[in-house]
Design a protein that fits this description.
Radius of gyration: 34 Å
Catalytic activity: Cu(+)(in) + ATP + H2O = Cu(+)(out) + ADP + phosphate + H(+)
Structural class: alpha+beta
Number of domains: 7
Shape: elongated
Pfam families: E1-E2_ATPase (PF00122), HMA (PF00403), Hydrolase (PF00702)
Main location: membrane
Oligomer: single chain
Number of helices: 32
Helix content: 40-55%
Distance between the termini: 51 Å
Subcellular location: Cell membrane
Family: Belongs to the cation transport ATPase (P-type) (TC 3.A.3) family. Type IB subfamily.
Strand content: 15-25%
Largest sheet: 7 strands, mixed
Length: about 950
């Protein structure tokens, strides 16, 4: 809701009973939004409070609450929004909407009902709140920006407010249309949170489907993804944690919150080790009984009951088998019983039914042999015990292989040291890294890991950042340089000031992002999920149909053949292979990408990256180093001192690489800093403002053309970025800025070409510069003088031609195109907005990482397809064979023991095939020979 809309709305603090969680609040919000699309609703269920900002009369609000299923008790307090002052403040240092969000958090910490919007380009912040100016100043300062006092809104800002344009994203008003393909930069729902649960009791893909359905029914859940491989669930939305855990528990499984990824990883490793040892013991017990019984039969021993003596001997064997089944298979039977009580089924249901049926039939033969003809008195005790032994053995091997899938995440977690040496009050002390505070001074000795992010204040050393960026060459760091947690100090000693601690460090964000991505599902998994949801019931039906077919059409001994076919169908069916086919490969692929400096946001991005046909690259900071310098200045009419003074005033606080180059040139001009009035940032063109009563423009050719400034023709053909300085009447100066091309650019682009990917460069720079850079790195297609809207339109045009477009940029003007692209790539050193728009973030400065990530994503999707084909193929062939389709032609019927071995082998095969990805190494050098068959 805009500020103008608020000034005609009422804020109502309502007393509403019956709400128990944020899902209840969402129910009320939906009812109210059907009446007023601009309504704002904030709920506090524990306090029975609902705060509503709306134009609606109270009677309609009461009716909406009642329709949602809750009871309106009356007003707590009612105030008109006009009584809450809205003030405009001049704040410098903000460069994007990420900065505005930082300020908003500080203001809301003082007044939870405050409304904060901002225009960084105008250095303006609009606050609707009862807070005093001193409180606002404190909040702005705490956020790290400069509070200059109250001011009048600029004409442009006032127009933006009057037109009720979105202020949540600086770029929505320029280019982002309500197209379903456009990923909005700030689409997180109000009060939305993400929580990760560790799950227990999961045995197959059917369990995953059951938990998925249980979570989806919880009020307030926006999205839930259950991962079979990691035994976790990632849930986003406003649902109460207690409700989520209860939903899982009521479905027959266990759940607990994952608060510390490192601790969760350690617990998971311990559980997997315990599970492995337990499965091995169960397997040994089952095989110790099953193997001798099977050998007895193979070597000619009788497996039938003919005499009383046979009954006694085989009765004892049956009791021993039951004891082994209870020991080795108890967890299967318990899981099957829980599933039955909750009216669903899983893989354990099939195992329990298959082994149980074989044992019960055998015991019936022992105690009532006369009920069956002589040729039907065969015993299957060896089948029950052997099946359990083989399945436990297969699952033990699966657990061991599955544990390796999280190796990449474990390596990231291991980068964090446990303690650090801080300097407080002039004394050094060793403390736990959890106790490090911002602005603490930290000493790092040779060979030690850095505990948090910060800025070097003393000393110099080389820092090994390969664990984060994939770049093997150590980086020299000195005073004023930024350093990151998890990197390793070289031979020197450093003292640095902590700037980001805990979950705010780059390493912590990488760990969080990798963990979430590993638990997400690419679209290719949907078919497997759909099949898994009906797999077990379908197999049970097939088993019954097979038994009936043998009963009606099978040869003698009918009862034995019925049992063998039905049990074999139940045992050979393997939903685990389907359930593991996608998540195992996804976990390894995302982790492998992180090793090479690529942070993949989710499974959708992973799959789309593998399908890319066209890559669009920005020039500055992407193909070039992003560290341009002014190489020449053509002074038209004014003194160099004045030019430097004006440039410094206009570009002060800007963070674009070209602006930084101009600021470096403008230093030491000897004049006092100029005061800039009516400052405006024109995205994709430059800046303008009034200094000393004179209007100045500083930017590219497009900005000059918009203001009818004549430009010299020779400047347009310079090989370098051209920036013009003009006043309202004529050109003042022309700057030529050159930026070194990254050493990895040509190699990376050659690799992309070899992969059949079209590479296009879009830049706001002039044609001569664009052509020179394109030729230097081997790009055939480029477009110069591109504004943000032009880049966005270009991406849409390619998509209309059925191209799958990847876009890579690191600037604010790239954000709209990044959001529109099928896959948006951003450099980790780019702006907050570019990174928020991206599907994949590349840590470091190496352009080759984009080629590596695409290579890894393609290998991962190929691996997933292999797993899915294998899982579907195995079940499609195995189940009919177990049912006996070949018997009429060969006289051969599959043994339940062989079915059990095949079932175990199918899961192991999928896991081992997925683990091949761990050996994958993308290559993009001139002797290119990447392992494309992975």
């Amino acid at each position: 809701m805009s500020v103008i809309e608020q000034n005609h709305a009422q804020t109502l603090d309502l007393y509403v009973s019956g709400m128990s969680c944020q899902g209840c609040v969402r129910n009320v919000r939906k009812q109210l939004e059907s009446l007023d699309e601009h309504v704002e609703v904030t709920g506090y269920p524990k306090e029975d409070r609902l705060v509503v900002i709306t134009h609606l009369p109270l009677a309609q609000i009461e009716q909406a609450i009642h329709s949602a299923g809750y009871e309106y008790k009356g007003l707590n307090r009612a105030v008109n929004a006009e009584q809450i002052p809205t003030r405009t403040y001049h704040v410098t240092g903000m460069s994007c909407q990420g900065c505005v969000r930082n300020v908003r958090r500080e203001v809301e910490a003082l007044d939870e009902f405050a409304e904060v919007i901002g225009w960084p380009s105008d250095n303006q912040l609009i606050v609707t709140s009862t807070l005093s100016q001193d409180d606002i100043k404190k909040a702005v300062t705490e956020a790290g920006y400069q509070f200059q006092g109250e001011s009048e809104p600029t004409k442009e800002t006032a127009e933006n407010v009057d037109n009720s344009k979105s202020v949540s994203d600086e770029f929505t008003e320029q280019s982002v249309e309500p197209d379903k393909k456009v990923k909005q930069l700030n689409d997180t729902p109000l009060q939305s949170e993400s929580v990760q649960l560790s799950l227990s009791g999961i045995t197959c893909a059917g369990c995953v489907n059951t938990i998925q359905q249980a979570l989806d029914t919880v009020s307030g859940v926006d999205n839930a993804e259950v991962n079979f491989a990691s035994r976790t669930a990632q849930i986003s939305g406003s649902a109460a944690l207690e409700n989520l855990i209860n939903a899982v528990t009521n479905a027959g499984y266990g759940a607990e919150v994952i608060e510390d990824p490192a601790e969760a990883q350690e617990k998971r490793a311990q559980k997997e080790q315990q599970e492995y040892q337990q499965k091995v013991r169960f397997s040994i017990a089952g095989l110790m009984v099953g193997v001798p019984l099977m050998l007895w039969g193979l070597l000619g021993g009788s497996m039938q009951v003919a005499t009383m003596r046979d009954q006694l001997i085989w009765g004892a064997v049956g009791v021993i088998s039951a004891m082994v089944m209870f020991y080795s298979g108890r967890h299967y039977y318990q899981s099957a019983w829980r599933a039955f009580k909750h009216r669903h089924s899983n893989m354990d249901t099939l195992i329990a039914m298959g082994t149980g049926a074989a044992w019960l039939y055998s015991m019936a033969v022992v105690f009532a042999p006369d009920w069956l003809p002589n040729n039907a008195r065969h015993l299957y005790f060896e089948a029950s015990t052997m099946i359990l032994g083989l399945i436990n053995l297969g699952q033990a091997l699966e657990v061991r292989a599955r544990g390796k899938t999280s190796a990449a995440l474990k390596r990231l977690l291991d980068l964090r040291p446990q303690s650090a040496t801080v300097i407080r009050n002039g004394h050094e002390q060793t403390i736990d890294i959890a106790n490090i505070q911002i602005d603490d001074l930290i000493r790092v000795k040779s060979g030690e890991k850095l505990p948090v992010d910060g800025i070097v204040t003393e000393g110099a050393s080389s820092i090994n950042e390969s664990m984060l960026t994939g770049e093997p060459v150590p980086i020299e760091k000195g005073e004023g340089d930024e350093v990151s947690a998890g990197t390793i100090n070289g031979n020197g000693s450093l003292i640095y000031r902590a700037t980001k601690v805990g979950g705010d460090t780059l390493l912590a964000q990488i760990i969080t992002m990798v963990g979430k991505a590993q638990n997400s599902k690419p679209p290719i998994s949907r078919l497997a999920d759909q099949v898994s949801s009906v797999f077990v019931p379908s197999v049970m039906i097939i088993s019954i149909v097979a038994a009936l077919a043998w009963l009606n059409f099978g040869p003698s001994p009918v009862a034995v053949n019925m049992l063998v076919a039905a049990v074999s169908v139940l045992i050979i069916a393997c939903p685990c292979a389907l359930g593991l086919a996608t998540p195992i490969s996804t976990m390894i692929g995302v982790g492998k990408a992180a090793e090479y400096g690529g942070l993949i946001r989710n499974g959708d991005a992973l799959q789309k990256a593998s399908e890319i046909t066209t890559i669009i690259l920005d020039k500055t900071g992407t193909i070039t180093e992003g560290k341009p310098v002014v190489t020449s200045v053509d002074n038209q009419h004014e003194s160099e001192t004045l030019i430097k003074s004006v440039v410094e005033g206009l570009e002060m606080g800007a963070n674009h690489p070209l602006a930084q180059a101009l600021l470096a040139y403008a230093q030491d001009h000897g004049e006092p800093k100029q005061t800039v009035e009516d400052f405006e940032s024109v995205t994709g063109q430059g800046v303008k403002g009034v200094i000393g009563g004179v209007s100045y423009l500083l930017g590219n050719e497009a900005l000059m053309q918009d203001h009818k400034i004549d430009l010299p023709q020779d400047a347009k053909h310079s090989v370098g970025s051209i920036v013009y300085l003009a006043n309202s009447e004529h050109l003042v100066a022309t700057f030529v800025i050159e930026d070194k091309i990254k050493s990895s650019a040509k190699t990376a682009i050659d690799y992309l070409h070899r992969e059949g990917i079209t590479v296009i460069m879009l830049t706001g720079d002039n044609d001569a510069t664009a052509k020179a850079v394109a030729e230097a790195v081997g790009i055939d297609h480029y477009q110069a003088n591109m504004r943000p809207q032009d880049k966005l339109d270009y991406v849409k045009a390619l998509q209309n031609k059925s191209e799958v477009v990847g876009m890579m940029g690191d600037g604010i003007n790239d954000a709209p195109a990044l959001a529109q692209a099928d896959v948006g790539f951003a450099m980790g050193n780019g702006t907050d907005v570019a990174m928020e728009s991206a599907d994949i973030t590349l840590i470091g400065h190496d352009l080759a990482n984009i080629a590596k990530v695409i290579s890894i994503s393609r290998a991962t999707l190929n691996n997933i397809k292999q797993n899915l084909w294998g899982a579907f193929g195995y079940n499609s062939l195995g189940i009919p064979l177990a049912a006996g389709v070949l018997f009429p032609f060969t006289g051969w019927l599959l043994s339940p023991v062989v079915a059990g071995a095949a079932m175990s082998l199918s899961s192991i095969t999928v896991v081992l095939n997925a683990n091949r990805l761990r050996l994958f190494k993308p290559k993009q050098s001139s002797n290119y020979n990447a392992e494309r068959d992975q």
